[in-house]
Each structure stands twice: as C-alpha cells, then as structure tokens.
Amino acid sequence: GGPASLSRFRGALVAAVLGDCVGGEFEGAEEVPMESVLQHLSSLDDETKGNGILEYSDDTAMARCVAQSLLTRAGFDEQDMARRFAKEYSASPGRGYGSGVIQVLKKLSSPQLSDVYQPARDQFNGRGSFGNGGAMRAAPFALAFPDQADVKRFARLGAMLTHSCSLGYNGAVLQALAVHLSLQGALDLPQQFISRLITEMEEVEGNEAARNDARILKEAEKPFCERLHRIRDLMDRSKVSIEEVISELGQYLFPRECLPENYGGLKRTIAYSLALGRDTDTIACMAGAIAGCCKGAEDADMNAEWLHMLYHQSSPGGRSETGEQSFPEQHL
Ligand code: F2R
Ligand code: MG
Ligand code: MG
User: Could you report the per-residue pLDDT of 87-110, keeping only the tens digit for each?
Assistant: First the structure.
C-alpha cells in the first residue's frame, strides 16, 4: 500500500504483536545463537509442532490499552489510558511486566488518585523509570495522529503515565516518530530516514530535563541522537558483524548477513531481533515481526482498521472538541 494506507496500519500493529509473541522465547538470554533463532522460527512454521498458539506479553497488552483508549476517546485522554493500564494489569498480572512498573500499575487503580502522573514520578526515588515500557507501546500514537507534533506530544504524555525519566519517555517519542515516518514510506530511503529522526530528536533531547537526566545517568549529552548517529555511520559501511552491532549500539540495527536468502524483510527483521538476545520480545515487537498466528493478532488487526479511520478523520488538535466516543467500546 501507499503512504498511510490501511495495509501499513495493519502491518504496524500485527507485526508488533507477532514480534512480541515470537520474541518471548528468548527474552533475558544473554546470547542467542542464530542457529537457535532459525530453529525456533522453523518450529513455528511446522504445524505438527505445538498447538499453534503463542502467548503475548506486557508489550502487546499495554499497546492494546493505548490503541483502545485513543479510539474510544477519539484522542489522548490520560485518565482513560491510565485506567485501562491498571485494569489490564489487575486482570492479567502474569504477562511479564517490568519489576518496577508493577508499583505504578497498582497505584493507578486507586480511586483516590488525583494526579495520574504522580505514581510514575515516584519511581526509583523520584528519578522515574528509564525502562523501555513506554517505547514498547508507542506505535498506536503514530497511527492515531497524522500531525507529527501531535505524535511527539501524545507519545511523550502516554509514556509518562509509567515512565517519568526522559530516557523512558523520549524512547517512546523516538519509536512513535519512526512508525510515523515509516507510515509515509520514509524507510525506502534508510539514510534519510535516520537523518530525519536525528533532526527531530535533536529538538526532543534539547531541553534541560533531558540534559540533566543524561548527565545523572552518565549518558551522552543527547543519548538517542548519539545512537542514531552511530547507526548512520554503520549504515555507510558495506559489512557490519552482529557483534559490532551489539557492542556499538546495544540492540538496534539489522544487517543482511547471516540469515537465509529466502527470508523476506519482515522475517529477517524478527530473526535478527531475536539473535541480538536480551530484550528479544520488546526489540522484535518494536522492530516489526514475521507473519504468523498468535493470540492478540485479531485485536491488533481490528484496532488497525479503526485507527486508520481515526487518522484520516481527526483534526490537528487531537481529541474531538466534545470528547464523544466515536468508536463504541463493543467494536474494540
Ligand atoms: N519485565 C520483562 N522481562 C523480565 C522477565 C519477565 C519474565 N519473562 C516473566 O515471565 O516474568 N519484560 C517487560 O519489561 C520491559 C519493560 O519494562 P518497563 O515497563 O520499562 O518496566 P520498569 O520496571 O519501569 O523498568 C524496567 C527495569 O529497568 C530498571 N530501571 C528503570 N528505571 C530505572 C532507574 N531510574 N534506576 C534504576 N533502574 C531502573 C529496573 O531494573 C526496572 O525494573 C520489557 O522488556 C517488557 O517486555
Ligand atoms: Mg514483554
Ligand atoms: Mg521485553
């Protein structure tokens, strides 16, 4: 499909669910040999093995809350989103949430809570979380708002419900921006895609709060810009090993080597995400994932359709003036 087509909306949400489900197999493993990744992927292709159902984790559970809140409120409503996070956690607490964020989700369920951002601010002795839980659920913001300034603003506010450290919420802004740009087809020119992200993140990371957090955490002055510059440098080279990617970037880039020739783009991306090890469900979820069958994909597919409608309808300000429910709950 062309820019902002329904198939791109579907691809973004469904691939995220698949990445989470397929990537869950290796989450936490320090090293994942490519051989194990290929074995895992081929066992999923083999209908005679397993029951064909994979479990999704917190990544999908929270992204679904974001999508459903944006749809039901026809824009960003922090109270509604916070309530959905809390309800989802209390219904299924065993989805593998981060050990810190659990405290926030419990506090968000209190009817006495007057400021929904306060529990996140209290995390880690008032420093806030820098975990990737805001980023892992950021894609729906890019699908709900056509305007880039809205994508940045609401992705940040949505992440701040659980992550008040700038590394946590700016990671969500970066992820939402990447989905926003790729929805317009920007991935066709990868170098330019990264350059545009750098330009945006220069501004996002330019404020005092971000500089202060980076200083305290002994990070580069603008941590995400710095990683993006390293990605651009690596992309200029013809060959990059998986070890170099891990040591240079942590876990971010997807060279073409070491994978079977017959793997398509999406399958290659998820296979590589798994081979990077450690936070494999979240990396694969955020990077996009192979096609397959797992619980949660149906919801994502339906949300994609509704978000596609909302995107093409919405006014630049985000939430409709009346705040009416444009997308009835029973459809979600
Ligand atoms: N939690 C996991 N995986 C652990 C294993 C789960 C296992 N498979 C199971 O089934 O139980 N995965 C999920 O968590 C990540 C997203 O986490 P989130 O939402 O960011 O959580 P949290 O608790 O806010 O942060 C994560 C950890 O980062 C450290 N941390 C964050 N901020 C800190 C700070 N300011 N100072 C010190 N440490 C900080 C803490 O260790 C947090 O617990 C995703 O991978 C998702 O898949
Ligand atoms: Mg997870
Ligand atoms: Mg994870």
Answer: 999 999 999 999 999 999 999 999
